[in-house]
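Supplementary Text 2. Reproducibility record for the structural model of the 308-residue chain.

All settings were left at their defaults, and a single model was retained for analysis rather than an ensemble. We include the record here because the model underlies the residue-level annotations in Supplementary Table 4.
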Amino acid sequence: MAGIDDEEKRPEIYKKIFNACEDWGIFQVVDHGVDTSLISEMSRLAREFFALPPEDKLRFDMSGGKKGGFIVSSHLQGEVVQDWREIVTYPIGNRDYSRWPDKPEGWRAVTQEYSENVMELACKMLQVLSEAMGLDKEALTKACVDMDQKVVVNFYPKCPQPDLTLGLKRHADPGTITLLLQDLVGGLQATRDDGKTWITVQPIESAFVVNLGDHGHYLTNGRFKNADHQAVVNSSYSRLSIATFQNPAPDATVYPLKVPEGEKPILDEPITFAEMYNRKMSRDIELAKMKKLAKEKNSEDLEKATNI
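Retained model, structure tokens:
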């Protein structure tokens, strides 16, 4: 992004971002303006948290319907294979960091500075995407009404049998845009052919991976892809990633901002982001149940065949 404010360099940067959004919905940005020392400190403190004894981490347990905290293996209800990861997550609504873990010392203050910097970068990216679409540069930001933010820190321990699990199952994010910081171990993969081929997103130190979510996909009438991705684990190294989700307000309208002549809107009618999110979660849970039933049926059929 170096030179993005330079009139001569800007068109080439815009072109690269625009092409990446059309082809993949996922790309990496460097020279983005977020201080590398802040990024390093956020990552260091995150690793210190996950190295704490279980009893210290479980003080922030998010079970029982809490909106944030610490959890081991987040997975959909009824899913056969659970995610191989530990997570600490909090919504950062109204810039409230009081519920962020108080260990290690200083993590709350660093998280505050980090999340504010990433919010600024996300808004800048949305301006770029708006202008790339031929819209007013504030168009995507205004469509969010009141942009919400959630920070999710993922820790993927070394896995003795990585072929039997995933760090994070295949999905697309529901929100507008996600900025992901991944360490140099790597493990993020993306596909654009419905999972037939997976490409590993090679880590670049201090770079942010930008994922477009479902909301961004719908606002652009499907022109920009919602990044189809997953995370894999390995048996040799643990891995850390920090995802900052930029989501619209629950009552924000989800509908294409611009429909090119000759095209049909990707949605039948406008809906709220809350409704869009609920529909997505219901579909994902139903799909998980279907996968589980199919696996159980296959096991039964195999057992019958063996007995014969």
